[in-house]
Design brief:
Largest sheet: 4 strands, mixed
Helix content: 40-55%
Shape: elongated
Strand content: 5-15%
Strand order of the largest sheet: 1-2-3-4
Number of domains: 4
CATH class of the largest domain: Alpha Beta
Number of strands: 13
Radius of gyration: 32 Å
CATH topology of the largest domain: Rossmann fold
Oligomer: single chain
Structural class: alpha/beta
CATH architecture of the largest domain: 3-Layer(aba) Sandwich
C-alpha cells in the first residue's frame, strides 16, 4: 500500500496565521493517523513577498505548537537546513526542475508563450467588466506558433508561459470535504505558469512539487478551491496520477468574517505572547472546523491523532471563539505544574516591572507560591501580573463599596489590633504558622467567621473576595501585613 504523505507549504511572508496553523495541524493529524509522513515545504516563488526571517519564524511557531514534521526545512544552530529524500524543499532552489516541465507542456501543446503587455491585459479585462463578462485572458497568443514565439524571444521580447486549456471541457475531481466537483474550462482563465522573471507561479510549482515529492493528499484552505481545476488539468496534461484533495473551511471571527489583523490577534506568536499554552491552542484549533463523534472537548495530541478524520470536517467556516479558547487554556493552566506556570509567568512579571532577574533567582520559591495562589483563576499566563499586583503594593486603598462597608464594622479595630499583636510575638510568618494564625486572632478577640475573616481580607487585599488567605499572609510577610493594617487604621478607622 502506498505511503500516505502530506505537506504544509506556506509562503515566507511574515508570521504564521492561526488558520495556517490549523491547516498544518490537520495535515499532521491525518498523516500520523495513517502512519504516514508530514512534510514542510517553503513556497517562495513570489520573491516580491519574501520577508527576511519569516522561514525561521514559521518553523519556531510550528515547533512551539508541537506540530512535528518528518522532512523538509529545519533550523539547526541558527541556520536553515533541509532534510529528506525529496529535496530541495525550498521552491526557489527548484527552478531548473520547473523549466524542464514547462518545455514538456509547450511541446505537447498544453501550454504556450504569451507576449501580451500588462497594459493590454488591463485594457482587455476592463472591457470585459464593462460588458458584464468574467475578466480573463482573451487567448490572443494561443495560436502563436512555437517557431514564431522562439524568434520573438530571441529578439528580446518579454513573455510568460500560459496553460492552454481545451475549450468546453469538464474537469472533474473529488474533494473529501466537498464531494464531487465539476468545472468547465470555458469558465476558467488560461493561467500563467511561468512568469517573466523565470519563476514559476504557484499553480505550476505546486503540481510539480507535489508529484515529485509523492504527496498523496493536498490539504489546504478553501480559498484554493477555484485554482484546483487548473491543477487537476496539469496532472492530466503531464500524465500523472492526481492526489486526493481536501479544502478546509475558513477560520472566521464571531462576525463570521475571515480572521485578519484588523480584528486583533491572528498570528501564532500573538497567542503565544498573550500567554496561551501550545497544547490549549492546538486542542481548541482542532475543534474549529472539525468535531469528534462524541462531545469530547479536551484532547491530548495523541487522542487527536487517533480520532481525526476528514469525514468530520465541516463544509462551513469554523468560528474562532476567544471565550472558548480561554476556557480550554484555563483548563490546561490548572492541569499544569506550579513550576511550569511559574517559569512561564516570570517574563510577564518582569515586563510589568514587578520583579527583576535577581528577584526571580533569589525568591523563586516565593514566586511559586505567588503563582499557585492565583493559578486556579487564570485564563492566560498574561493575566498573572494584574492578578498578583496587590501583593507588590506598599499599601492598599479600599475602593469597593462592599469592602468599605466591611471595614466599618464595630469589631474591626479589635480584629486588626489583634493581628498586629499576634505578629509581634513571632520573628517571621511561615506557612505552618500562617495556617493557624487566624485561630489565634479569634481566640484573642472572640470574633468568628465572616466578622473575623472579612475585615482581615479587606485590610490586606482591598477586596472581600480573593485567593487563598493563608497564602496571602505568607506572601506579604510580617512587616508588610503590619504596614497595611496601620495604613487602614490611619485612613479608614
Amino acid at each position: 500500500m502506498k505511503e500516505v504523505r502530506l505537506r504544509f507549504a506556506p509562503s515566507p511572508t511574515g508570521y504564521l496565521h492561526i488558520g495556517g496553523l490549523r491547516t498544518a495541524l490537520y495535515n499532521y493529524l491525518y498523516a500520523k493517523h495513517n502512519n504516514g509522513k508530514f512534510i514542510l515545504r517553503i513556497e517562495d516563488t513570489d520573491q516580491t513577498r519574501f520577508v527576511e526571517g519569516a522561514i525561521e519564524s514559521l518553523i519556531n511557531s510550528l515547533h512551539w505548537a508541537g506540530v512535528k514534521y518528518d522532512e523538509g526545512v529545519f533550523v539547526e544552530d541558527g541556520k536553515i537546513v533541509e532534510k529528506g529524500d525529496y529535496g530541495p524543499y525550498i521552491q526557489s532552489k527548484r527552478l531548473d526542475i520547473y523549466q524542464k516541465y514547462v518545455k514538456e507542456l509547450i511541446e505537447k501543446g498544453h501550454a504556450y508563450y504569451c507576449f501580451c503587455s500588462k497594459e493590454r491585459l488591463d485594457a482587455v479585462r476592463e472591457e470585459q467588466k464593462i460588458k458584464g463578462l468574467v475578466p480573463k485572458y482573451d487567448g490572443l497568443c494561443r495560436n502563436v506558433s512555437i517557431e514564431e514565439a522562439k524568434e520573438r524571444i530571441a529578439n528580446g521580447e518579454e513573455y510568460v508561459v500560459r496553460l492552454k486549456l481545451p475549450h468546453d471541457y469538464d474537469i472533474k475531481f473529488h474533494d473529501l470535504v466537498r464531494g464531487d466537483i465539476v468545472i468547465n474550462t470555458n469558465d476558467i482563465d488560461d493561467q500563467v505558469l511561468l512568469k517573466s522573471d523565470g519563476f514559476p507561479t504557484y499553480h505550476l510549482a505546486v503540481v510539480i512539487d507535489d508529484h515529485l515529492m509523492e504527496i498523496t493528499h493536498i490539504v489546504r484552505g478553501e480559498e484554493w478551491l477555484p485554482s484546483t481545476p487548473k491543477h487537476v488539468y496539469l496532472y492530466e496534461a503531464l500524465g500523472w496520477e492526481k492526489p486526493t484533495y481536501v479544502h478546509l473551511p475558513t477560520v472566521l471571527n464571531k462576525d463570521r468574517k475571515k480572521l485578519s489583523k484588523r480584528h486583533g490577534d491572528v498570528s501564532v506568536e500573538d497567542f503565544r505572547d498573550k500567554g496561551y499554552l501550545p497544547e490549549a491552542l492546538i486542542n481548541y484549533l482542532a475543534l474549529v472546523g472539525w468535531s469528534p463523534e462524541d462531545n469530547q472537548e479536551i484532547f491530548t495530541m495523541d487522542e487527536l491523532i487517533e480520532k481525526f478524520s476528514f469525514e468530520r470536517v465541516s463544509k462551513t467556516g469554523g468560528i474562532f471563539d476567544k471565550d472558548k479558547l480561554n476556557w480550554v487554556n484555563g483548563h490546561y493552566i490548572r492541569s499544569s505544574s506550579v513550576e511550569r506556570i511559574t517559569k512561564l509567568a516570570i517574563p510577564y512579571l518582569k515586563e510589568a516591572g514587578l520583579i527583576d532577574d535577581k528577584f526571580a533567582e533569589e525568591k523563586y520559591y516565593w514566586l511559586e507560591l505567588l503563582v499557585k495562589t492565583v493559578q486556579e483563576g487564570l485564563d492566560t499566563i498574561a493575566e498573572i501580573p494584574e492578578k498578583v499586583a496587590f501583593i507588590f503594593k506598599e499599601h492598599i486603598d479600599i475602593v469597593e463599596e462592599d469592602a468599605l462597608e466591611v471595614i466599618k464594622g464595630e469589631q474591626v479595630p479589635a480584629v486588626l489590633n489583634a493581628i498586629k499583636e499576634e505578629l509581634n510575638k513571632v520573628e517571621e510568618l511561615d506557612e505552618e504558622y500562617a495556617k493557624g494564625f487566624m485561630k489565634l486572632v479569634q481566640k484573642a478577640t472572640g470574633v468568628k467567621g465572616k466578622n473575623l475573616f472579612m475585615p482581615a481580607r479587606v485590610a490586606l487585599t482591598g477586596s472581600t473576595h480573593g485567593p487563598e488567605f493563608v497564602n496571602v499572609l505568607v506572601l506579604l510577610g510580617k512587616e508588610n501585613i503590619i504596614k497595611r493594617i496601620e495604613h487602614v487604621e490611619e485612613k479608614y478607622l
